[in-house]
From TrEMBL:
Membrane topology reported for the UniProt record: Peripheral membrane protein
Span of domain Complex 1 LYR protein: 35-93
Family per similarity comment: Belongs to the complex I LYR family.
Cross-referenced CDD domains: Complex1_LYR_NDUFB9_LYRM3
Biological source species: Tegillarca granosa
Location(s) in or outside the cell: Mitochondrion inner membrane
Listed name of the protein: NADH dehydrogenase [ubiquinone] 1 beta subcomplex subunit 9
Complex and partners: Mammalian complex I is composed of 45 different subunits.
UniProt-listed Pfam families: Complex1_LYR
Protein role: Accessory subunit of the mitochondrial membrane respiratory chain NADH dehydrogenase (Complex I), that is believed to be not involved in catalysis. Complex I functions in the transfer of electrons from NADH to the respiratory chain. The immediate electron acceptor for the enzyme is believed to be ubiquinone.
Keyword Cell inner membrane attributed: no
Length: 148
C-alpha cells in the first residue's frame, strides 16, 4: 500500500513540476529523516523563541537544544533514530506556546508621512508594481477569458 502511495506521489510531483502554476504548498515527496530532523530543530527553536523573548535567555536555552540534537546525530540504528524523532515531535507539540509569533506580510504598510519623505521612490515603486502586474496578467491570464 505504501509503495503505491509513494508512486502516486512521485507521478503527481512530475505532473506538478511541468505545470505552470505555483504549487509550493503541496507535498509531493516523503521527507527524508534528515529533513524531518532539520524541520524539528527549526520548529523547536521557534517555539523556544516564543517562550523566551529576550535574546540572552533564548540563546542560553538554544545551546541546550543544539546539544541534544548533537548528542543524537551519531545514532546508526535507524529505528532508534526514528523513535527519538517521533518522541521529540510529540514533546514539541506539548510544549508549544499558547500564542506563537506570527510573521505578517508588511510590504505595503507605509505611513503617508513616510511616503511624503521619498516621493520619487514611491512613484517608481508604483510604476514597477503596475508593470509587474501587467506582465503577470499577460503571462498567466486565462486564454478563454475569466468566468466569474
Amino acid at each position: 500500500m505504501r509503495l503505491v502511495l509513494l508512486a502516486n506521489c512521485r507521478s503527481l510531483g512530475k505532473r506538478l513540476k511541468s505545470s505552470r502554476m505555483a504549487t509550493n504548498h503541496l507535498v509531493t515527496q516523503v521527507p527524508t529523516h534528515a529533513k524531518r530532523v532539520l524541520s524539528l530543530y527549526k520548529k523547536s527553536l521557534r517555539c523556544l523563541r516564543d517562550h523566551f523573548p529576550e535574546i540572552p535567555e533564548y540563546r542560553y536555552h538554544a545551546a541546550f537544544i543544539r546539544k541534544m540534537f548533537d548528542d543524537t546525530k551519531d545514532i546508526k540504528d535507524f529505528m532508534e533514530a526514528d523513535r527519538r524523532c517521533k518522541i521529540a515531535e510529540s514533546q514539541l507539540k506539548t510544549y508549544m506556546h499558547a500564542f506563537p509569533r506570527k510573521f505578517y506580510n508588511l510590504k505595503n504598510t507605509w505611513h503617508p508621512m513616510e511616503k511624503a519623505q521619498y516621493p520619487e521612490y514611491f512613484a517608481k515603486r508604483e510604476i514597477r508594481k503596475r508593470e509587474f502586474l501587467e506582465s503577470w496578467e499577460k503571462k498567466y491570464r486565462d486564454p478563454e477569458g475569466s468566468t466569474s
